[in-house]
Amino acid sequence: MHILVTGAAGFIGFHVAARLLARGDAVTGFDNLNDYYDVALKEARLAELDRIAAETGGTWRFLRADLADRAAVEAAFETPFERVIHLAAQAGVRYSLENPLAYVESNVTGFAHLLEACRHGGVGHLVFASTSSVYGANAAMPFREDQGVDHPVQFYAATKRAGELMAHAYAHLYRLPCTGLRFFTVYGPWGRPDMAPMLFADAILAGRPIKVYGHGRQSRDFTFIDDIAEGVIRATDRIATPDPDWDAHHPDPASSNAPFRLYNIGNNAPVGLEDFIGALETALGRKAIRELLPMQPGDVPDTWADSSRLARAVNWRPATPIGAGVRRFAEWYTGFYPPGAP
Fold it and tell me: Which of 95, 261, 281, 339 is least crowded, fewest Cβ atoms below 10 Å from its Cβ?
């Protein structure tokens, strides 16, 4: 198939594009390479995709463009796509406190442009990234897709929830099959520098204190990047269809009488932040110096995914143990950022 992957230079987009190329799909990447974090890391990911395509003989091209630029999106769709995997977004909870309008431009306006292009381009299935952050102030664990998500605690989550609603409207009005995936605390090789594993590894190896918010009492459903990428591709291959059992008098938020689905992708095994730090200490062979701090605005105490709907739909679920995943992250990190390198 010819598949468009937005955010292909990003953490998750890179891994998804690499897997698609390895299995023989034609892939077009779309990314604006913004400077939210080090552009050199994004360029390194793209260089790796070039290498994978050359090794496998895969069809790969990259478009540097912005989803907020409607003309650029329309130009990209002059090439027909059978599937679209939308992973581009303005990410990061902290930054949404400082610059909320960047999230509107990317996560709302940019997504609207993509939905229109998919509608007019006859795309057979749109799969898009959502986030566990949509569960917000909900404290009923584990998080299930049939729970309410109407109390976001940061603006990033609000924009991603808006995307879910926009996709449902297009699925209903134009019968565009849409599947949304709520990712839970993704970690692994090629990760974002603003995420905790990268921040922790950098500080531990440099002998600096790591900032441990919530005094280390938080827990997260850490999910390894290979599991996330596999789940994205399996969901892409299973085209969303109307739910024959959907009841308008008792509506299920995760399905519809339109071709629409929502799934959690998480390890279904929350890990305490202290346990994650301990696994990283073991993998790096260094002890961390901890600076215990209160929770930050927009943080939630815990996350825990019920991924049983995804398991039933695609006959698979994330399962990488935290120790194995952290070891693989540490191996990549120390290779990509050798100790003592400038």
Answer: 339
